[in-house]
Amino acid sequence: MGAQSKPEISPWGRAAAGATGAVLANALVYPLDIVKTRLQVQVRPNKSGSQLVSETPHYNSTWDAISRIVTDDGIKGLYAGINGSLIGVASTNFAYFYWYSVARALYMKSSKAASSSPSIAIELALGAAAGALAQLFTIPVAVVTTRQQTARSEERKSLLATAREVIEGPDGVPGLWRGLKASLVLVVNPAITYGAYERLRTTFFKDKANLRPWEAFLLGALSKAMATIATQPLIVAKVGLQSRPPPGRKGKPFKSFVEVMQFIIEHEGPLALFKGIGPQIFKGLLVQGILMMTKERVELLFILFLRYLQSLRSKQLRRATDMASAALQHSPLSNISKPLAMSS
């Protein structure tokens, strides 16, 4: 049986499907996002035994973080900043899938081997370009959300108030784009994720136009795990850039993700660059799996809806044609034309 091509839908359709899947997935596992963010910004005691003074609690594990957040802030503490986070997730994924679909379509049209799938290098390049464009427009929401997630409950403010606090800080308006360089470097994460997803799909499910939910979940989870392990140090550095500086910095913000990584290595050792990787991978597995599973279903529903609209339009056109034909047959002009034709 020959390979079945997946029905084509517009970049807007793919973007809407991707954003829908991302919002649903992130809403379901949002507490893990809170936990991994807090684990990544905390500074552990160094080997010499000295500990930097901090008013924020120190968490020993994922479960310890969850239980202490609930004890201190209640269940709502696990959902701090969720509004801004979901806005950021929706906008980032909408922009990413839109630009990725546009870039991939342009490449396939211009490529001489349009019938074959792009190589891994091309998939990564297309994903990186789409990710960079998405980050430029959506990183302010990520900065504000990170501030909300790492703030203590008594200091936590609304989305707009937190944004105002960032703007009134030492960096001014450009502070909303803190971590942009790290974010641009981190476009390799979604590039690896979606590049690996497309490659794994063509490898294991080449002859399938539409994947089953568990198949899409499995491919999404595997591809995200690969990307997370490869980019975890950059993820930790980005979170450090976007949150408030640790006590050891005495209020002085980091200037680059390299500076964050140097600070972490100096005070905690190289392995600290991978702190929070447990909930990061677990969250990534769930989010990416649910995202791709939902995206595949939403795309299929979108295709079916478009086909339904097309069938309705075809029926309306046929009905209009039949009515016009019937009206023409019963018109006086048609009755007059018959005797004229016979007399001639």
From TrEMBL:
Example GO molecular function: ADP transmembrane transporter activity
Record's GO cellular component terms: mitochondrial inner membrane
Pfam families: Mito_carr (PF00153)
Keyword set, alphabetical order: Membrane, Mitochondrion, Mitochondrion inner membrane, Repeat, Transmembrane, Transmembrane helix, Transport
Subcellular location: Mitochondrion inner membrane
Residue ranges of Solcar repeats: 9-106, 118-203, 211-301
Entry superkingdom: Eukaryota
Similarity remark: Belongs to the mitochondrial carrier (TC 2.A.29) family.
Name of the protein this chain belongs to: ADP/ATP carrier protein
Lineage of the organism: Eukaryota, Fungi, Dikarya, Ascomycota, Pezizomycotina
